[in-house]
């Protein structure tokens, strides 16, 4: 194959040499040393010719390979090596640190295991067409967390408007609420997550901790005697984001933005998947707060640019072949995601059910969803809320909700505006907010 690649490129007038090769589960990367003085674009423009004369489905050219003076030509293997989640979990069982959110996401082009730590990401955006392996990857990540962590260590919120993938985890004890299939209830679930995020910040602040992890360490060291309780990680899975954006649009974007901007320090993480990576689904705000991305096969270059900010995903092979963009590097890593069958998921869920039934949070998902935003120019609404707080000496969102007959989301936003303007203090633990202004 190496000699054939050299010969094809020579036919177009460029003398070059394959200096090394790496074989992975699904592709082999040939490193080509280009002749001095030849523009890289001349070589990369030969992708279609290489695909034709090598008689393969797709060719991906990496020019140059990061940190090297060579070009990478990635050619599909004639025999594909399957990667199974069970094998990966078994390989990693003795090496995996306990009580963290590290997940093995597959094997790279040299066959090495690749993992991510949600604590460091801290959120993840996944995109790919039907059949690309996107949903299977989501299932493998969930299964990995269920296998390694108990419900006391991690809890889930699952939103699945397609009613296909995540309903497999119904009644798993890690769930904070039933699997959500109604798009209208999704924003309500995220409103609860925002409420929980704020409550965690207050608890962490009261114990004078930097973050969620040091808070839990203090609780283990004895703070539980003062009424403080350990907090589990919370991971929110969304599959399919496009369906939700069609129904909730701006409200959903606002909720996602608030969570992704602030939740990292208190152990709340968001993993979102879509098969339609358009600008009206993956908006600029969502992208800005989710620097970690996974791109499976997409239909066209523009889709790849939306999810990765560069081409490449349109040349992938499907069935779990994806490009990973780390938040700490501009270089893409090509990975084969592990496969997990429905039967394996059912066994994992059945084993997890031995922990008991899920303990759902007390939260009404059926309440009418209101806008998560309040127009700061609407002084009439704000002044009405402030008058109630000032007169009744009660500074809480739930009290405003009852008095003004508005949804919790809007009431909470009004309280945040009062805090931003210096009318009330931040809420600290169970003491609530102090009223800082007399009128």
UniProtKB/TrEMBL annotation:
Q: Name the protein family.
A: Belongs to the FtsK/SpoIIIE/SftA family.
Q: Please give the PROSITE patterns that the UniProt record associates with this protein.
A: FTSK
- Tell me what this protein is called: FtsK/SpoIIIE family protein
Q: Where is the FtsK domain?
A: 111-305
* A UniProt-annotated Pfam family: FtsK_SpoIIIE
Q: Which UniProt keywords apply?
A: ATP-binding, DNA-binding, Nucleotide-binding
Q: Which InterPro entries match?
A: AAA+_ATPase (IPR003593), FtsK/SpoIIIE/SftA (IPR050206), FtsK_alpha (IPR041027), FtsK_dom (IPR002543), Ftsk_gamma (IPR018541), P-loop_NTPase (IPR027417), WH-like_DNA-bd_sf (IPR036388), WH_DNA-bd_sf (IPR036390)
Against SUPFAM superfamilies, the record matches this protein to: P-loop containing nucleoside triphosphate hydrolases, Winged helix' DNA-binding domain
Entry's Gene Ontology molecular function annotations: ATP binding; DNA binding
Amino-acid positions noted as binding ATP in the UniProt annotation, renumbered to this chain:
128-135
């Amino acid at each position: 194959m190496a000699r054939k690649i050299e010969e094809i490129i020579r036919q177009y007038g460029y003398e070059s040499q394959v200096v090394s090769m790496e074989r992975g589960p699904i592709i082999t990367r040939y490193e080509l040393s280009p002749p001095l003085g030849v523009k890289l674009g001349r070589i990369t423009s030969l992708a279609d010719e290489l695909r034709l004369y090598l008689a393969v489905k797709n060719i991906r050219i990496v020019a140059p390979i990061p940190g090297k003076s060579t070009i990478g030509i990635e050619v599909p293997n004639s025999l594909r090596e399957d990667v199974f989640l069970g094998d990966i979990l078994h390989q990693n069982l003795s090496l995996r640190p306990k009580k963290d959110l590290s997940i093995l996401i597959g094997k790279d082009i040299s066959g090495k295991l690749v993992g991510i730590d949600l604590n460091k990401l801290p959120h993840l955006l996944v995109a790919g067409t039907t059949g690309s392996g996107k949903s299977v990857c989501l299932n493998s990540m969930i299964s990995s967390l269920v296998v390694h962590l108990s419900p006391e260590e991690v809890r889930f919120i699952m939103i699945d408007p397609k009613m296909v993938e995540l309903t497999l985890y119904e009644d798993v004890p890690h769930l904070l609420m039933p699997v959500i299939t109604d798009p209208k209830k999704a924003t309500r679930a995220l409103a609860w997550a925002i409420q929980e995020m704020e409550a965690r910040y207050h608890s962490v602040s009261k114990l004078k901790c930097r973050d969620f992890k040091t808070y839990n360490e203090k609780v283990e060291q004895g703070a539980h005697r003062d009424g403080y309780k350990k907090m589990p990680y919370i991971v929110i899975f969304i599959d399919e984001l496009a369906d939700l954006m069609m129904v909730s649009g701006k409200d959903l974007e606002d909720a996602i933005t608030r969570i992704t901007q602030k939740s990292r320090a208190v152990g709340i993480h968001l993993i979102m998947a879509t098969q339609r990576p358009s600008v009206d689904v993956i908006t600029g705000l969502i992208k800005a707060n989710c620097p970690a991305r996974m791109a499976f096969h997409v239909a066209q270059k523009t889709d790849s640019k939306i999810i990765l900010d560069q081409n490449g995903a349109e040349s992938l092979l499907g069935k779990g072949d994806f490009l990973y963009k780390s938040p700490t590097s501009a270089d893409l890593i090509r990975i084969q995601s592990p496969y997990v069958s429905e039967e394996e998921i059912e066994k994992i869920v059945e084993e997890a059910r031995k922990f008991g039934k899920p303990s759902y949070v007390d939260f009404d998902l059926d309440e009418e969803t209101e806008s998560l935003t309040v127009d700061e120019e609407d002084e009439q609404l704000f002044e009405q809320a402030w008058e109630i707080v000032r007169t009744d000496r009660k500074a809480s969102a739930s009290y405003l909700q009852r008095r003004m007959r508005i949804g919790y989301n809007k009431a909470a936003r009004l309280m945040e505006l009062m805090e931003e303007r210096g009318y009330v203090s931040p809420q600290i633990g169970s003491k609530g907010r102090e009223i800082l202004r007399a009128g």
